[in-house]
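Could someone model adenosine-5'-diphosphate with this protein?
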Amino acid sequence: MNYRRSLARTALFALVYVAAVLIGWQTVLGPIGTGLMWPAGVAAVWFCAQRRARARWADFVALPLALTLTVQATHSASPTAALAFGVTSVLQALIFCWLLSYWRPNLWGAGGTEPMRSPTDLWGLLGAALGASLCGAAVGVISEQLFDVSPDWSNFPLYLTRYTASILVVGSAGVFLGSAVTTFRLHYGSVGGWWWHCLATLLNTPLWRIGEYTGIVVVSTGAYLIGFGTTAQLPLTFVLLSLTVLVATRLSTPFVLLHNTVMAAIAVQYTIRGKGPFSYVTDLQTQTILVQIFLALVMVVGLALALGRDERNTLMAELAVERAELAEEQQRAAAHADLLATIIDSMAGGLAVVEPDGQLSLRNPAFTKLLSGFEHQATDPVFGLFRLDGTRYSEEEIAHLRAHICEEAQDLDVLVRSPDMKEGRIVQITATPLPHRDGTRSAVVILHDVTDERRHRDELANFAGVVAHDLLNPLSSVDGWTTVALAALSDLPPHPNLDQAIADLTRSTRASERMRGLIDDLLAYTTARDAAVAPATVDLGAVVADIAEARTDAAVGGEKPAPRFTIGELPPVEADPVLLRQLLDNLIGNAIKYTAAEITPTLTITGHQDGDMVEICIADNGIGIPAGQHDAIFGNFHRAHTGGGYQGTGLGLAICKRIVERHNGTITAADNPGGGSCFTVTLPAAVTVTLPLPDAHPGAATVTPLRAAGRPSPPGRRL
Ligand code: ADP
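Reply:
Sure, complex below.
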């Protein structure tokens, strides 16, 4: 708002205010000059409308000035008294603005642009009107001293009711009107648009509704005219109040406001003419107070009912929208659920959700089919769940298995025998935990029938094992005959072709050595895969020291630099001694092998216990593993360094992985921060049992049980 516009608005409000003061003088009751209407409401709306005006100071000057001049022109009151009234009006208007913006900042004039929409808005406005009137009335009484009379506190209720009624009526109208003007462009665009909107609304309004409006207005106007126009001094206000209720519940809120204002005007008009229910009260001050209370009551009751209805309608509309959205959402969710159910049911793999108490809250037909032998577990020794080596899971083990699945299971293979598949099917179980907010967790279990895959793999591995084994004999013959031929050639006298023949035979010896390496690895691989695991407590430190010594001897014998070992404290592990040695030898051998020619291999081997597992780290200063191949090197025949003269078959780490997995451990490769690589292996820690010793010492002693002391588990056990 620019400065000029601000001043123009101030002038306009001042004119309206002067008009209101003059009209107020017309409502004076009796000869003592007590006006029924006072422009306190106009001042309140004025100051609310101008709260963001550029020339706000002008309002502070204009209001007292307008009041003083009007009073001077029409009455003989002293200028000081008139000015005091003006200042009181400014103060009152300011307090109203401040209280309204504090309680209902959303309303027009209080900082927002909204009209009153709920009874809460009305209570806010009423509270602000009361607060402002209390101050105004108190200051008004005190300033009477300026009329050279002592303050008369009996005027206080009169001022209070008059100010409150005025601010309530004009303030409510101002909030509705101000909001409509502010949002006019947004809603209608132009005056033409507004007309069209009104016309369209009128045309769309059913006839019975128009009839209802007309009927109610006619009846209530008639009732007010009779109630106040009669000289019979009948106390009919209660009838008029009930009409207010009817109007408020049936007609639109702005219309209720308009209706009540018109009716208030009728009531005031007749009362000042000495008619109506209040005219029989002889004390004019009491009469004025009663009229003000009646007007305020009609306005409050009417607006409270109308706004309560509006609020309920708004809430109902919001509820209806939310219900529609919810229904739509439910429909979408149901369609989604149907789709998911169809997908899950048509999956070849089994899927189920296991709840924390072990119950299945969801499972698809494939899940039931794949575990169809399981229901015979308790009753039939032939059907149920088995390990891959054919040993049957006991009830306790199944309970443990279930708990393990709820924790997290990765590719666990079990054999399920059922009447419809007597030879059994191998089912791979994968479970993913589903944590809940209450701290419990379910698990999503996925089953895959891997029978064919496993058989195929086993057949291939067996075939490789058999072939490798059968190749060893002819290879030994080739080796033997080559050695014999070399010995025979070395005894011959020099001949031009002799050196060439010896070189060819030496190459053939190297080729047969490489082939032997491959066959050895193939055999080791099948052993690592198939051989029974016999876990025992193994002194890891001793095994590592032994391998280190052997590797040092081999290097010195081969005229290579002796590797340097730093071996930390290594806790004992529970593992198959043969397979464990094979595992560590492979890893240490690789660490030495994959070191640059001119560098002395330096290995750091450390270990520590972490819960039930022991973690072993083998770090080297070698050539390192190429980026992105740290997982791939554990695959069969995968070689990360094919050039550079590093001999190998690509089976060593596959063997290591297999051995570790058969011990329920893990193996990973990473870059050594100081250069080279670092292989980390986890294996089960040695089993120890804690027994209480009641007599000897309080507390407990740790002893190693028989099995842990080195006695192997029953033969034939496979993990
Ligand atoms: P290989 O018979 O080739 O040694 P492995 O299975 O033992 O086969 O190892 C697979 C590949 O992993 C190797 O070819 C090599 O590229 C890489 N590798 C294994 N150990 C190490 C190591 N300590 N440092 C660097 N690379 C290694």
